[in-house]
Specification:
Number of domains: 3
Structural class: alpha+beta
Number of strands: 28
Oligomer: single chain
Strand content: 25-35%
Distance between the termini: 53 Å
Number of helices: 12
CATH topology of the largest domain: Thrombin, subunit H
CATH architecture of the largest domain: Beta Barrel
Mean pLDDT: 81
Low-confidence stretches: 8-19, 56-92, 372-387
Largest sheet: 7 strands, antiparallel
CATH class of the largest domain: Mainly Beta
């Protein structure tokens, strides 16, 4: 028995030795003795922001905390929330509606904060660290990343902060937050970076640093510092079932915000690159169905008419693997990379198409507000009666369909551009139902083949069978948009 224990100990020792682990690599660095020097130096550049609204009681009744789409527990610091002590008071012509934080980025008086802090404001006041109160104007705002740039007029230069490189921040690094939680000005809290590149689904360009530094309502718009005193994030959101800090906070990364602030100052709006595609995540099943080695990249579900992508030759079902030399591992990375690309520049886009890599050159356009990919609404609630049309069962896919004809287009108010098969019945025990297909959804592509009728669908499915695969990639158009789903064939 003792010999066995000794042998096990020897094996563990050899494993540690051969993997290069030693006591020095396992020891954590000592935490800073104090954050006082950083706090003294940079607190004067953090300001208190309050707003005044002239709205009546009816609109005030609707004012309340915004919530992120992913989960009701994701709550931004919504300082425009009503003061509970005045909830039952009579309407007044002048009302304080918001209290948040901001920080000075230029001694001439430019201040960064969250858009949700000032978005309902008729007047904005900025209180400096020495209690000087200044009126502020909005230079520009960007709702997509919840950032606003303000400007105050001052006769003396103001203390300003500098941006840091958020990409260089590591999980476990010490950070400090300075802000005005609950109206308590100049509050300093410390913690570590808990995670990076968080997508909390509040926008298309989410890139958040997660931290356990205590941040609460009123910290919105305040800076998150590294130990060099550089701003690596803008405190924006928290995860909390109760609305208070539970040690999970999110700061928008400086490398994303810095470019937005630059555009707001120069143009009054954010100028973003645009290529004109709708995309979705690549699952393991989708990767398998298209012959890709693993789940990665961004799957193009639709190419927008008159956009840069369609002109360059990008096709639906292409998987974008790299953009301008930058690898796209997750779908969420592509919008950020494209948005940050110089407008009118020509870039290389590497896609996976029909089992091989293909490089396409593309000119990057500019995203305009009206360039929102709109999908014609498909009414999924009207049943198609057997007496109206001939129903055909696609047993391999677990669905029953009817071909899109002029009669169907008229009956369901479908645009002439819509083609394919409308789903009228689904095997409730099949994979198609499990993946979310519904009656009224339209199948217009199977395994990268356009489908105009049932024969097209049967040919596409047979090719998958001939290749001895059991997953069919199906593109559907619904009232929820256009997307690909991998369907396991019945049997």
């Amino acid at each position: 028995m003792l010999r066995n224990i000794c042998n096990i100990a020897l094996v563990l020792f050899l494993v540690v030795a051969t993997t290069g682990l030693d006591s020095s690599t396992l020891e954590a660095k000592n935490p800073p003795e104090t954050f006082a020097d950083l706090a003294d130096k940079f607190s004067p550049a953090v300001v208190n922001i309050s707003t005044t609204s002239y709205r009546g009681r009816e609109s005030d009744e609707r004012a309340g905390p915004r919530q992120a789409p992913r989960d009701d527990s994701f709550r931004e610091f919504f300082e425009r929330r009503r003061d509970p002590g005045r909830r039952n008071s009579r309407p007044r012509g002048r009302r304080q509606t918001s209290l948040g934080s901001g920080f000075i980025i230029d001694k001439a008086g430019y201040i960064v904060t969250n858009n949700h802090v000032i978005e309902s404001a008729d007047e904005i006041s900025v209180t400096l660290a020495d209690d000087t109160i200044l009126d502020a104007i909005v230079v520009g705002r960007d709702e997509k990343v919840d950032i606003a740039l303000l400007k105050v007029e001052t006769k003396k230069p103001l203390p300003a902060l500098s941006w840091g490189n958020s990409d260089a921040a590591r999980v476990g690094d010490w950070v400090i937050a300075i802000g005005n939680p609950f109206g308590f000005s100049g509050t300093v809290t410390a913690g570590i970076i808990s995670a990076r590149s968080r997508n909390i689904r509040v926008g298309s360009y989410d890139d958040y640093i997660q931290t356990d530094a205590s941040i609460n309502r009123g910290n919105s718009g305040g800076p998150l510092f590294n130990m060099n005193g550089q701003v690596i994030g803008v405190n924006t959101a928290i995860f909390s079932p109760s609305g208070g800090s539970v040690g999970v906070g999110f700061a928008a990364s400086s490398n994303l915000i810095r470019d937005v602030v630059h555009d707001l100052r120069k143009y009054g709006r954010t100028r973003r690159g645009w290529i004109g595609v709708q995309i979705q995540s690549v699952s393991e099943e989708i990767a398998l169905s298209l012959g890709l080695d693993r789940a990665r990249g961004a799957l193009v579900s639709q190419v927008i008419d008159n956009g840069p992508a369609i002109g360059a030759g990008i096709e639906s079902s292409d998987i974008i693997l790299t953009f301008d030399g930058k690898p796209i591992d997750k779908m969420e990375e592509l919008p950020r990379v494209v948005a940050a690309t110089t407008i009118d520049s020509t870039v290389d886009v590497e896609v996976w198409r029909e089992g091989q890599r293909k490089t396409i050159k593309m000119r990057v356009g500019e995203l305009e507000p009206e360039e929102n990919s709109q999908i014609s609404s498909m009414d999924s609630n009207h049943p198609v009666k057997p007496s109206d049309l001939k129903e055909i069962e696609l047993a391999d896919l677990g669905v029953t369909v009817v071909e899109i004809s002029d009669f169907v287009r008229k009956k369901f108010s479908l645009p002439s551009s819509v083609h394919g098969l409308m789903v009228v019945a689904i095997d409730e025990f099949g994979d198609a139902a499990f993946k979310g297909l519904r009656n009224g959804d339209i199948i217009d592509e199977i395994q990268q083949m356009k489908v105009f009728n049932v024969t097209d669908a049967q040919v596409a499915v047979q090719k998958v069978k001939d290749a001895q695969k059991n997953i069919v990639l199906v593109r559907i158009t619904t009232d929820r948009g256009v997307r690909y789903i991998p369907v396991k064939m019945a049997g």
